[in-house]
Amino acid sequence: MSVGGSAGGAPSAYEPKKLRMYGLVGSIVGIYLGSILNSALNTEVFSFIGALAAIFAVVMGANSVRRVCAYGIGTGVPSIGMLALGMGIIAVMFGLSVAETLGFGMLGPIITLIYAGVFGYIIGVIANKVIKFNIPVMEEGNADLSMAGALAILGWSFAISGTLGYEDIVTDVLMTGYIAIIFIAGGLAILHPFNANLGPDEKQDRTLVNAIMVGGLAMTATGIGALLTQGLSEGLLQIIIGFAVWYYFFKMYYKLVKRDASAVVGTGLLPPTVQ
Amino acid sequence: MDAFSMGLIAAMGALATVAGASEDIESDVGSQSNPNSQVQLAAQVGNPHRIYNKAISGEPPANALWCATAAIVAYTLITAFQMPALMALVAGASVAALFNGVFSMSSYFGRNSSQARFNQWIYLDIVRYTTPSIMAHAWITSFCIATISYIMVYMLPTPHPFPMPIIALIWGLAVGAIGSSVGDIHYGGEREFQNRAFGCGLNTMLSGQIVRKAEAGLRNSIDNAWFCTKFGGPATGMGFGLTVFLDNWRTTVFDPVSQASYAILMGVLFILVEVAYNHYIERSTRRKYGPYPEYKGDVAA
Amino acid sequence: MIFDATTIVYILEIVVGGLLVGVGVHFVPVGGAPAAMAQATGIGTGTVQLAAGSGLTGLLAAGLMMSVTDNIWLVLASGAVGAGIMVGSTMLTGSWIYAYAVGVPFVSAKVTYDPITGFSQPPYIAPGTVGHGIPTVCFVSGLIGGMMGGLGGAMIYYALYLINGNAALSAMFAIGIFMVNAVIASWNIQGTIEGFHDPKFKKWPFAFRACLIASVLLALASVLITGGA
C-alpha cells in the first residue's frame, strides 16, 4: 500500500536497459549452462546453476516493479507480483510443452522467453489503451515483468528437476507440488524488495540487494525440494549455496540500511520530530 | 460418512480456527497490511513511533509463502526420509517461521530507512523482542494449515487430487484474505486510534494520529497484540474455521459420488442463513445505536 | 494434437471462465485501507487478495468434485458454493467486528436508501467518513461476486482437466489464469468499489474487453499443452 510517497520517477544508478540485458542474458546463459553440463556429464550436480540464474531474472523483475509502481497504479504492489508469476507460469509450461512436441527439447527456454515477452507487452498495451492508464513505461515494464517471472520459474524448476525435458518437469515439479513454493517465493522475490523499501528515501541499490537476498532464500527452498527429486548431495549443495548467498547479501543489506537510516539505535525514546 | 471421517473434519475445523486466530495476531504484532498504511503515514505527518512496520506484501501472499514452505518441507521429509508425519510437520513449520523472521526484519529495516527524512529511527530492541513473537505466531499458522492439507490428501476417505503443497498454498491465500478482512479492523479501527471517541468510524482529520504513548511508557506492537487477542483474533479464527468446516462437512456427510446435489443444496442453505444473520445485525445496530446527533440533513432515520 | 469442435468448446469455456472472474471482481465490496479503519464501506482488504482467496477456495471444492464425477453442472455448482461460503463467512465475521468492537451501524455513503432493504443511510454515517460496515446490499453483491469468481475458476479447471488429464498441472494453470484476470479487473477498479450500486460499477465493460483479449490468448496457449507422462 503506497500511502504518502513512492519513488516518484524512480531515480536509478543502474539504467533499466543494462539491468534488463544482465537479467536476460544471465538467466538464459545460466539455464543452458546448467542443462548442458548436466546432460554432457550425465549427472545432476549442476542444477544449482539454474537457481543462481533465476536470481538474475528476479533482480530484473524487482527493478521493473520499481519503475512501474512509481507512477501509482491504484492497486498495491503485491498484485503486480502475482500478475508477473501468473503470466510466467503459463509461459513456462507453454514453451516447454511446445518445444517437446516439435522435437527440439533444447529450444524450450527460447520459446518461453518469446511468449512471455509478447504476452507481457500485450497486457501492457491493454492496460494503457483499454483501461486507459496512459503510463509511459507500462508496456515495456510489463514485458520485463513477464519475462522475469517466466525465467525465474524456469530456473528454479530446472534446479529441482535437473533437466529441461517436459515430462521430467511435470513429474518432478508439478506432481510433487513444488511448483507452489516456486510460484509464491518467486512472486515475493519480485515484489518484496520494492514493497519493503517503500518510502521517499528509497534507494535502488538497497532494493536490488534485497532482491538478491530473497532469491538466496528461495534457492534454499528449492534445495529442500531437490532432496527428494535428485538426492541428498545435490539437495544439500543447493541448500548450502543458497544459505551462503542469503547470508552475504543480508549483511550487505544491513550495511546499506545503516548508511541510509536517520539513526539506528539500540533503544530509546521517541525522536525529536521534524515538521 | 463414518465416525473416523467426521472426527477428521472436526479436527480440521479446530485447526482452522486456531490458524485463523494466530494469523491475525501475527499480522497485528507486525502491523501488516491495511492498518500499516496509518503507521507509514504517522511518521510522515510528524509522529515518529516505536511500532513494528512489517510490510511484506499483503497478508494472502505472505501467508501462502509460510504455509507452502511448511508443506514442502513436510512433504519432502515424509516422502524421501519416511519421517513420521507429526515430526515432519513440526520441522516444516520451523523452517517457515525462520523465513518469516528474515522477511519481517528486512521489511522493518527497509521501510524505516526509507523514511529517514522524517527522522523515523530504527530501534534494535523493537526488532529483538518483537520478531520472535511474530515468528512464533507464523509457526502456529503454518503448522495448522500444513496439517489440514496433510489430512485432506492422506487421511480423508475421498482424498483430494491436488498435491499437498498446492492445497497449502490455496489455504494460505484464504487465511490471509480472511485475516486481512476481519481481524485487521479490530486493530486498525480500534486499537490504533484508541484515544478517539468510541462508536464512530475514523474521521479523515485524524489520519496519521496513531497512539504512540501508552498507559505507561511508549506504545509498541506487543501492547497492540495483547488487545487484539481479546476479540479480533478469535473472530478471525471463527471466520476461517467456518469456511473450512462448512466446506468439508458437506462433502463428508453427503457422499460426493451419489448425493452431490444434497451437498450443494446444503451449501446454498448456509449462504442464505449468513445473509439473514447479517441483516439481523444490521437492523439491531440501527435500532440500538440510533442515528448520529451531528446529522443535520433532512433524510428520515 | 487434434484440433476439432471439442477444442473450440474448451477454448470458449476458458474464455467464459476468465470473463466471469474479471467481472465478478467488480461485484465484491472492497474498501481497501480506509475500510480497515472504519472510514469507508466494504471489506477492509485489497480487490485481488479477496478475489484470489475466494476464487481459489472454490477451485479447491471443484477439484474434489472433479475427481469423483464428470458432470459439468455439479463441478461448477460446487465451485460457486465453496467460494460463496468463504466470502459469506468473511463478511459475517467482519460484521461482528464492526457491530460489537468498533460500534458502528452499517451504511454506505453512495446511495440515500439501500436498494434491497430500503433503510435510509445518511443519518447513520459517522461524521468525517464515507460509510462503514457491510450493509445488506454490499453483502448480497459480495456473494454474487464471490460465486462468480468460484464459478469462473471451476470452469477454467474443468476445461483444462479434460484437455490434459493432470490435476496438478490444471490447478496451477487455473491459478495463473485466475491471477491475470483478477489483476486486470482490479486495475480497472483503481482501488475500491462498493458493489453493483456504486457508480464506479458502470466501468465494467472496459474490464470485459481487457479480460476477453487476455483470456483468448491464454486459452489458445492452454489447448496446446499436453499432460506429460
TrEMBL record, chain C:
Classification via Pfam families: MtrD
Claim: Methyltransferase is one of the keywords in the record: yes
Subcellular location: Cell membrane
Catalysed reactions listed for this entry: 5-methyl-5,6,7,8-tetrahydromethanopterin + coenzyme M + 2 Na(+)(in) = 5,6,7,8-tetrahydromethanopterin + methyl-coenzyme M + 2 Na(+)(out)
Signal peptide, first to last residue: none
Keywords, in A-Z order: Cell membrane, Membrane, Methanogenesis, Methyltransferase, One-carbon metabolism, Transferase, Translocase, Transmembrane, Transmembrane helix
Pathway: One-carbon metabolism; methanogenesis from CO(2); methyl-coenzyme M from 5,10-methylene-5,6,7,8-tetrahydromethanopterin: step 2/2
Family: Belongs to the MtrD family.
Name of protein: Tetrahydromethanopterin S-methyltransferase subunit D
The species this protein was found in: Methanothrix soehngenii (Methanosaeta concilii)
